[in-house]
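Lecture notes, continued. The same structure-token format from the folding unit now serves as the input rather than the output. Read the line below as a description of shape only.
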């Protein structure tokens, strides 16, 4: 549950970039403002990416390991049925503390994403419980990353050289 909360916290820091100028200031925006004050906007972007990438990798790694171990001891569905309500309460408390506006489309999209993610995590934990964590976790991570890359390319985006090399290295 704490891993889901950590992932939610990191996500809440990056959401203001997608919601526009009316959003509250969060960690990512503050990092950019701090370095922009010193006329180093590129450094702010690099620092934010590194911080979020490391924190995300740590949170997902812990979640995969703990979820896989728990799924070997009890059924994967039971792990999800216990961890998701706890994470929902913790994220709800965090959302009240952070603030913001709640709209019907946000509730609808949040509910749809929550339900679909619950099924995805259930199947993921079942795979972790059945196979070696060292194989299932990285393979799933690459497959999950392939969906947005494939969608972006289908919509006409073309990655640069560094992104292409990184994608190919992830597939190897």
């Amino acid at each position: 549950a704490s891993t889901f909360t950590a992932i939610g916290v990191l996500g809440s820091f990056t959401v203001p970039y997608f919601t526009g100028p009316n959003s509250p200031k969060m960690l990512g925006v503050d990092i950019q403002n701090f370095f922009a004050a010193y006329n180093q906007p590129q450094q702010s972007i690099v620092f934010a990416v590194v911080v979020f990438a490391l924190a995300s990798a740590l949170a997902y790694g812990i979640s995969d390991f703990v979820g896989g171990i728990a799924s070997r001891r009890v059924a994967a569905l039971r792990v999800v049925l216990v961890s998701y309500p706890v994470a929902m309460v913790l994220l709800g408390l965090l959302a009240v503390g952070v603030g913001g506006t709640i709209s019907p489309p946000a509730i609808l999209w949040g509910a749809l994403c929550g339900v679909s993610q619950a099924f995805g995590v259930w199947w993921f934990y079942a795979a972790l419980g059945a196979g070696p964590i060292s194989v299932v976790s990285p393979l799933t991570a690459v497959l999950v990353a392939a969906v947005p890359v494939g969608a972006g390319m289908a919509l006409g985006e073309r990655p640069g050289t560094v992104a292409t090399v990184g994608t190919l290295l992830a597939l190897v």
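Point for the exam: The chain has a mean pLDDT of 76.
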